[in-house]
Amino acid sequence: MIDITLLGTSALAPLPERALTSVFLSCGGHSILFDCGEGTQTAARKAGVSLMKTDIIALSHYHGDHIFGLPGLLQTMLSMNRTEPLYVTGPEGLREVLFDLLRLAGMLSYPVIPLSIPDNGLCLRGFIPGFRFDAALSAFPTEHRVPSRGYCFTLSRPGKFMPEKAKALGVPLKLWNQLQKGEKAEFDGVTVLPEQVLGKPRKGLKFVFSGDTAYCGSLIDASRGADLAVYDATYGENGQAELATEHGHMNFAQAADAAKKAGVKQLWLSHYSQMIQEPSDYLQNAAEIFENAVCGHDGLSAELKFEE
Amino acid sequence: MIDITLLGTSALAPLPERALTSVFLSCGGHSILFDCGEGTQTAARKAGVSLMKTDIIALSHYHGDHIFGLPGLLQTMLSMNRTEPLYVTGPEGLREVLFDLLRLAGMLSYPVIPLSIPDNGLCLRGFIPGFRFDAALSAFPTEHRVPSRGYCFTLSRPGKFMPEKAKALGVPLKLWNQLQKGEKAEFDGVTVLPEQVLGKPRKGLKFVFSGDTAYCGSLIDASRGADLAVYDATYGENGQAELATEHGHMNFAQAADAAKKAGVKQLWLSHYSQMIQEPSDYLQNAAEIFENAVCGHDGLSAELKFEE
Questions:
Q1: What torsion do the CA atoms of B2, B137, B98, B126 make, to the nearest 10 degrees?
Q2: Residue B69, exposed/middle/buried by CB under 10 A (0-12, 13-18, 19+)?
Q3: Is residue A199 very low, low, confident or very high in pLDDT (cuts 50, 70, 90)?
Q4: What are the tens digits of pLDDT across the range B57-111?
Q5: What is the pLDDT, as a whole number, of residue B292?
Q6: Would you call B69 an interface residue with chain A, using a CB distance cutoff of 8 Å?
Q7: Quick check: is A253 in a domain?
Q8: Which of A134, A184, A201, B226 would give a disulfide with B208, using CB separation of 3.0 to 4.6 Å?
Q9: What stretches of chain B adopt beta strand conformation (E)?
Q10: E strands along B120-197, which residues?
Q11: Domain end position, chosen among B180, B196, B212
């Protein structure tokens, strides 16, 4: 129900097998791109995902290794004759950065709209035309050297549909699907709300992207119960915790500790420093703390599904 | 004596095995980068060349697929603590584009200097500190949809050194090397010029980069007798000549025809449209006209040497 593809896992400079930071999320035929470092287009092609219909680009902060893929992506969307608006969100300073990026990208065939995410999250149904799920995108503050934030994508799962209740209320069969999806049904002047025919809401899905951040409480709070989290794990060594904090990053162990404290199901480590040649050499440092820590790599993908 | 590495051969959008346009030239421990599309850094790493000490970046024009690798490269040079000035040259409009690129790149540890190339070429000895060869970089107008130009790099070869003349003039042995390289020698108040001890200048080396251009006389004129030329060959089919011209590009056959007319020794075709999946499928269209046409590919390199 949510597909996540890790496009780039490098920090600072791109490497042949490690593009700069970018994570692609798709759900219900729509998509969000988290960060867009140089090389994101190529990484997406390698991973077999198309960025052309991305609805929202959510930037964690404006360091070059997270945004320099944007002018090229904007131009490629132009060359594909995109007309749908593209929303771009990010922390404080978005308008200025977007202004510079758009100057470089030049004339486009579609509007690029700075998007502000409400404190309680942006409900995507209604916001993205044609998106019919109860999903929300929210942002949370992180601790980097510049204004920064992480993102949380949640997909709610309606309660079980109770056909006997729909029947009793006289809802025509063709409107059942609407109610199952959490939309109201109207017929013969009667309005039936989903909660009248659905059981208690069931556990949904949650994805968290940390962006660049030091170990911090807001990351743990935002990640509570996430099915999957992609975290900054710039440094591999346990002895680099202080260095990581100083630079507004985490090491493998700190990322694992945050994921454990938040009760995350699975953690993908990412944003590796150039010093890390082989991330798996350091995995033990995370796995000792949190066994469901995985070394992210370009193209790693997962399908998050509702529990049976 | 001149090393050329083709870094990227794609037009418009990058592909996993085809980065956007960029050609790296190195000579005498110094280097020039022609164009810098997104992904140039990664392409250079794959090709095993370092861009960190590049002296001049020569842009053919300012379409995104030729310049969007610059902000990232500038930042990587910063992260390597570069302090030497970096010169950037290009056609009309350079200052404005550079302004936008530098705004994105942010604070740097070295000056980025817009460079104007004189009509008769820029003599690199003296201009690049420590560069001791008789080499020149010149620009020539091309025909694209925006202000554009190609570049020509020539390395002169002094005449044969005649030791008997040096001896007769009393030049101390330790100054012979200087004279051989085309520099004057001074000793005991005497000045000996290279032409006094050297034979007639011998055939040097010449490299030409077309940038994006339609078939045009200025390209042929600038390419006369080049040892190697990298040409725009956006389209593969012979039937696409008119389309190519309309878009300010060449097809394989036009590129081959220009190289043949210019008496180029070897031609590398490049800047392939996304329509071209396998450039070698179209090579025949060029080879029928000019047998020394080669399909360029990312990482293709050559060492141009003086004739024996």
A1: 90
A2: buried
A3: very high
A4: 999 999 999 999 999 999 999 999 999 999 999 999 999 999 999 999 999 999 9
A5: 98
A6: yes
A7: yes
A8: B226
A9: 2-8, 22-27, 30-34, 56-58, 86-89, 112-115, 122-123, 135-141, 149-157, 185-187, 190-192, 202-209, 228-232, 266-270, 293-295, 301-304
A10: 122-123, 135-141, 149-157, 185-187, 190-192
A11: B196
Query: How many domains are contained in chain A?
Result: 1
Residue A177, domain member (yes or no): no
Residue B308 lies in a domain: no
For residue B76, which residues of chain A lie inside 8 Å, CB to CB?
A: 12-13
Residues of chain B with C-beta less than 8 angstroms from the C-beta of A20:
72
Residue-number span of the structural domain to which B189 is assigned? 159-196
CA dist B282 and B271 (Å) reads 14
How far A80 CA sits from the closest chain B CA (Å)?
11
Boundary-marking domain end, from B143, B171, B196: B196
Secondary element (H or E) of residue A191 = strand A190-192
Residues B243 and B291 in one domain: yes
- Tell me the average pLDDT of chain A: 96
Residue of A nearest to B79 (CA): A12
Q: Residue A131: how many CA atoms within 13 Å on its side-chain side?
A: 25
Angle at A144 between CA A143 and CA A146, to 5 degrees: 120
Q: What size, in residues, is chain A?
A: 308
pLDDT band with cut points at 50, 70 and 90 for residue A73: very high
Same structural domain, B10 and B121: yes
Question: What is the structure's pLDDT at B169?
Answer: 92
**Pair (B243, B107) in one structural domain:** yes
Nearest C-alpha of chain A: how many angstroms from B40? 9
- The CA R_g of chain A, rounded to the nearest whole Å, is 20
Q: Average pLDDT of chain B?
A: 96
- Say whether both B212 and B145 belong to one domain: yes
Burial of B301 (0-12, 13-18, 19+ CB in 10 A): middle
Q: How far is A228 from chain B (nearest CA, A)?
A: 27
What DSSP character marks residue A166?
H
Residues B35 and B165 occupy one common structural domain: no
Tell me the CB-side half-sphere exposure of residue A9, using CA atoms within 13 A: 26
Does A298 lie at the interface with B, CB-CB under 8 angstroms? no
- pLDDT tens digits, A183-193: 889 999 999 99
What's A142's domain CATH number?
3.60.15.10
Instruction: Please give the average per-residue pLDDT across A65-75, as a whole number.
Output: 97
**Cα–Cα distance measured from residue B67 to residue B71, given in angstroms and rounded to the nearest whole number:** 9
Instruction: List the structure tokens of B272.
Output: 């392939």
For residue B190, the cross-strand partners are B187
Mean pLDDT of A124-137: 91
What is the DSSP secondary structure assignment for residue A178, as one 8-state letter? H
In what side-by-side order are the strands of the sheet with B293-295? B122-123, B135-141, B149-157, B202-209, B228-232, B266-270, B293-295
Q: Which residues pair with B20 in a beta bridge?
A: B10
Domain-embedded: residue B148: yes
Nearest to A142 by CA among A48, A235, A230, A252: A230
Q: Is B3 a catalytic residue?
A: no
Number of H helices, E strands in chain B: 11, 16
Give the global pTM. 0.93
